[in-house]
Amino acid sequence: MNYFQPKPITNFNVTVDIPGSKSITNRALILSALSGKTVVLKNILLSDDTKYMIDALRALNNNIEIDEVNKILKITGNKNPKYENLNLYIGNAGTAMRFLSSYLATGEGTATLYGNNRMNQRPIKDLVDSLLQLGVHVKYLNNEGYPPIRITSKGIFTNYVKIDGSKSSQYISSILMAAPNFKIPIEIELSGKIVSKPYINMTLAMMNNFGIKYNFENNSIYISPQEYSLNEYLVEGDMSSASYFLAMALISNSTVTLNNFFKNSIQGDSKFLNILKKLGLKVLKFSDTSITVKGVPTYKGIELSMNDIPDVAQTLAVVGIFATSPTKVWDVENMRIKETDRISALKNEILKINGDFIEFNDGFLIIPKSLENYQGNSLETYDDHRMAMSLSLIGLKVPNIKILDPDCVSKTFPNFFKEFSKIYKEE
C-alpha cells in the first residue's frame, strides 16, 4: 500500500517553498490564449491540473514552450480558435473543464470536453445554461447537467447573459474571461448567492492586468469587445497550498518560513493567515514574497462562515481538532461538489482517529478532545489533493497516522510531501 507516515514533532524551525498558484496559472493560460499574442508566464505551477489545461490549449493550436527548471512558460495564443471534432480530456481539473468551455465559445467548431469519473459527477449545468443563452450549442453526452459535454460554436451574437454562481464562481470567471473576445458588448448578470467571491475578484484583477476594462454595477458586469495585451505575467505563490504550512506552525508550536508567499496577494485564500492570527499564530517577518510565522502552545477554536474561502476549510478542520474549544464552519455547501464530498470525507476520517465531528448540510462542528484520546489510523484521501494535505497535519500530534494514496497531491502540489518532510531533516 502506498502511504505517507508523518511523525509527531513540535518546536522545529523549517523553510518551505510554496508552488505557483493553480488558479492563477490556469487563468493566465486562458487569458494568454485569448490574447492571440506571445506572453511569457513566470513562476507557473506544473501539476496535473495545469498540464491538462496546457495539453488542451496545444490541441487548440496554441504554441506553448515550457522551461520546467525555471518554471517559465511561453505561449503564443490562438485567438477565436477554429477546431473540428476535437476530444479534450481534462481529468478532474475543474478550472480546465469550465474555462475551456467559454474559450471554445469564442471560436468556431465542435469539441468534446470529458474527464474522469469524479468529473462526470461535478455539476456544470449553470455554465452550460449560460452558454446556451449566448447561442452556443451544448449537448450532454451522458447525464443531464454533468460532463462530458459536446460544444458546437459559431461565435457569440447575444449581448446579455444571466449566470447562477451559487455552486461555483468558476462558471462566472469562465464567461468573464471570454467576454472581451465576443463580437458585441455584453452584460453578464450574476444571480443566486455567489460562492467564492474572491475568485471572481481575482479573475477581474487579472483581466485588468491584461489590459481589459469593465464596468461592475450592482449585480451586472459590462464588457465591450477589447484586445488582451500583456507581454509578461508573474504567477503568485498558491495561498491554498500555503495554508497547510501556516497551520503546521500553529499546530506544532513551531517556526515556519514560507518562500513564494506574496504579501499583496490577489487570492482570497490569503485571508486564512488572518484567521490563524486570531487563534494566536504570530507573524515574525513578512517581506514581499516570503513570511515567517510562529505557533503557540495552545489555542482556542473559532466559529465563522467560510463561504469566500471553502478550499481552506479542511485545513481549519484539522486545526480545530487540536484546539481547546469547538470550531464551527458554515456556508460551505459547495465543498460537497469538489474533488470529493469534502464534508462527508472529513467526517469519515476524523471519526477514524476517535475525533468528534458533527456534519451539517453546509458545514461542520468539531469538538476537540485531549490529545491522548486520539488514536492513529490509516486515512483515506479520496483522490483529493486537499484531503491528503490537510489530513497529513494530524500526524504532527497523533502517532501512527498513515496518509493513503499520497500521490494525489500531484493535482496542485507535486512536491508537498517533500516539503513536509523537511521538518524531520531539521532535527
Our count of helices gives 13
The CATH superfamily of the largest domain turns out to be Enolpyruvate transferase domain
- How many structurally independent domains? 2
Radius of gyration: 21 Å
SS content category: alpha/beta
Q: Portion of residues in helices?
A: 25-40%
Uncertain residue ranges: none
Alpha carbon gap, first and last residue: 28 Å
Globular, elongated, flat, extended or rod-shaped: what is the shape? globular
Q: State the CATH class of the largest domain.
A: Alpha Beta
Tell me, rounded to a whole number, the average pLDDT: 96
Number of strands: 23
- How big a fraction of the residues is strand? 15-25%
Please state the second-level CATH architecture of the largest domain: Alpha-beta prism
Topology:
Elements: E1 3-4, E2 13-17, H1 22-35, E3 38-42, H2 48-59, E4 63-67, E5 72-76, E6 82-89, H3 94-105, E7 108-114, H4 125-133, E8 137-140, E9 149-154, E10 160-164, H5 170-178, E11 186-191, H6 197-209, E12 215-217, E13 220-223, E14 232-234, H7 239-252, E15 255-259, H8 272-279, E16 282-286, E17 290-294, E18 303-305, H9 313-321, E19 327-330, H10 342-352, E20 356-360, E21 363-367, E22 378-379, H11 385-392, E23 402-404, H12 416-420, H13 422-425
Parallel strand pairs: 2-15, 3-14, 6-7, 10-11, 18-19, 22-23
Antiparallel strand pairs: 1-23, 3-5, 4-5, 7-9, 8-9, 11-13, 12-13, 15-17, 16-17, 19-21, 20-21
Helix pairs in contact: 1-2, 1-3, 1-6, 2-3, 3-5, 4-5, 5-6, 7-8, 9-11
